[in-house]
Amino acid sequence: MNDDLGIDFNADSIVRKVRDGNGVTSGNIVSSAFDVALVAGRALLEFVTVLIFAFSMTAHGPRMRRTICSRLPRARQEIVLDTWEIAIDKTGGYLYSRGIQAAISAVFTWAFLFALGVPYSLALGLWVGIVSQFIPTVGTYIAMVLPVLVAFKESPSTALYVLVFLVLYQQFENYILGPRVTKHSMDVHPALAIGTVFAGGLLLGGVGAVLALPATAVIQALISGYTTEREIIDAPLVEEPERTSRLARFRRRLRRKHDDPPQD
């Protein structure tokens, strides 16, 4: 650790406690190792469970849908099949678009960090790609922190270059790459996206956080499909503020001057 991280950590006191039998004991070490193994095993079990469940639903999807629909009236069968189809489209579109953007972000970030000589460039690239894409809204800013800190260990100027690159790449992703990749996927309000991700993470952990956005998009699509949109009354609270740029206002004034007849 001292060689890799550039720190000066002295472990003599811990070694003395282990030898003397005070403080850190073999029982504590075994207990800690058991706790770590239990957490790792639980995470592995959850991952394998999700894979088995996903494979089972994919392989036996038609049979499962027939079994469910055979117990329902015809009108309910249509609702169930419509819901199932929307869920497939929204979840698949979300994972597909996010996966593509995560891979592109990871490759570009890794190449830039590798060119600058920042250590652990591959791991940092994967970190930026996954965190920035699968944590909505705030994930971009969370992903920037770690590469900048690692680069700051090399030099402040390197950290500044990394920060500028990540900000510029984010603008490229927001205005050029993202709209082209996600134009056929879901559209969820940012505030609703953050709330659902936090709720899914608290209820089901990492799996719930990942699946929260597709579930929200499915519910939103169902509400839009099975409810009637009404006309909104004229009221100050529902009026959108006028968003016109200076250039648009300038062009409108020029057009108005051009269209107005000359006065005597």
Low-confidence stretches: none
Shape: flat
Count of β-strands: 0
Give the amount of beta strand, in percent: under 5%
Percent of residues in helical segments?
over 70%
Number of domains: 3
Q: Class by helix and strand content? A: mainly alpha
* Count of helix runs: 11
Q: How far from one another are the termini?
A: 86 Å
Quaternary structure of the protein = single chain
Rounded mean pLDDT score: 77
H-E order: HHHHHHHHHHH
Radius of gyration from the CA trace? 27 Å
Summarize the structure.
This protein has 264 residues and is mainly α.
Question: Can you walk through the features of this model?
Answer:
Helix 5 (74-116) runs antiparallel to helix 8 (156-181). It contains eleven helices and no strands. With 264 residues, the protein is mainly alpha-helical. The model has no long low-confidence stretch (mean pLDDT 77). The chain has three domains: 10-64, no CATH class; 89-184, no CATH class; 186-225, no CATH class. The chain is 78% helix and 0% strand. The protein is flat, with a radius of gyration of 27 Å.
Layout of secondary structure:
Elements: H1 2-5, H2 12-20, H3 26-59, H4 61-69, H5 74-116, H6 121-134, H7 139-154, H8 156-181, H9 190-204, H10 206-226, H11 246-259
Helix pairs in contact: 5-6, 5-8, 5-10, 6-7, 7-8, 9-10
